[in-house]
Description:
The protein is built from ten helices and 20 strands. With 385 residues, it is an alpha/beta fold. The relative contact order is 0.20.
Amino acid sequence: MSVGWDADPDVESWPGLPPLPGDTAADACVVGLGGSGLAAVQDLVERGLSVVAVDAGRVAAGAAGRNGGFLLGGPALFLHDAIAQWGPDAAVGLYRETQRELDRLESMLGPDVVRRVGSIRLAGLPGRPRTAGEAEDRAREIEDCAVHARALRAYGFAVVDYDGPLGTGIFLPDDAAMNPARRALALARRLADRAALYEHTPVARIESGRVVTGRGVVHARVVIVAVDGQLEIVLPQLAGRVRTARLQMLATHPVARTRLPCPVYGRWGYDYAQQASDGRLFVGGGRDRFLDTEWTTDVQPTPEVQRHVEGVAERMAGGPVSVVQRWAASVGFTADGRPLCVEVDDGVVAIGGYNGTGNLVGPVAARTAVAHVLDGTPPPLYFAS
Ligand SMILES: Cc1cc2nc3c(=O)[nH]c(=O)nc-3n(C[C@H](O)[C@H](O)[C@H](O)COP(=O)(O)OP(=O)(O)OC[C@H]3O[C@@H](n4cnc5c(N)ncnc54)[C@H](O)[C@@H]3O)c2cc1C
């Protein structure tokens, strides 16, 4: 399975990291080198702790290097839905934290990695509705976009109405786009001489003070487990609190370069695409249409979902596309949409369950976990703890 984001000079030139050479000790151990684990490593080293961090595969071999590359303010739920479910303090609080995280990422990695182009929430998909059902759904979604925009404005978040070549919806100018693999590898490059980072080191067991891997044991008084999809496999005690789903994507040959000015998500956010500067489209979606098959820890793409995503790609492109790569990865879902930041054992904190939107929420969770375990700060209300 080849991943479209890996066709990038910065990713191709990643030299790799060695596996853990044997038993070792540090102040802290981080399990998982995706965007969230790397944020935890950074926070820990900035507080002066020695850190060992391990991943079963390459840096960002999981969803962190295989996702849509959207950097959106807020959680997976739209702001008005999050307010309805969790109350305004929790929903707006998490929205503000993700925006701060985006500012931090942009100032650290620069505009080559973080493209501050905004995002469009579209009602439906580009082009005329193909069926009466699609037309009705789009009309409902146009109303929902208006409610969404009112909630954003009420709390001071930037939003403008969008009515343009792609359709009708709202434009959120503060959002951004990235190649997610580049983001993670850029962070790992910055951290490699400040922390001991190891790839190809699967963790078999995690206990208070000990992380047991196939390559040796890491002794550490602080352990942060930063695994989104498949968290309930790494920590079986979280089964029932987080559930793994597969999300699928594809990349196309370049299409007309100016087709998508920024990340676009339509049909209630279930279908999404962004266009790279070379014209390639990166497209995903359809999870709502394939619920039965996508609750799985398997990460192979399937013909049924890929057919749906290809249809989305054609709508986003405004014509036929030629698919170059297809892939999938695991993410964690929770019952009420709140991500997890849970102390599962003395000094062991697990983060994950971002419900499909973890590029910024994950690092927020990582900083929350570090503050909890080192300072005793309780996780805010927007986390399930
Ligand atoms: C197709 C797709 C599209 C998405 N689009 C977006 C998007 O546009 N915007 C957004 O915000 N979010 C998106 N997401 C969700 C987002 O990718 C994830 O929430 C986020 O990347 C999670 O990052 P993480 O670092 O927490 O975890 P992960 O990326 O899951 O990283 C965990 C790491 O832990 C490692 N690991 C797992 N088990 C073990 C073990 N036993 N031992 C050692 N290491 C282990 C894995 O190899 C992996 O590298 C998408 C996800 C997918 C799959």
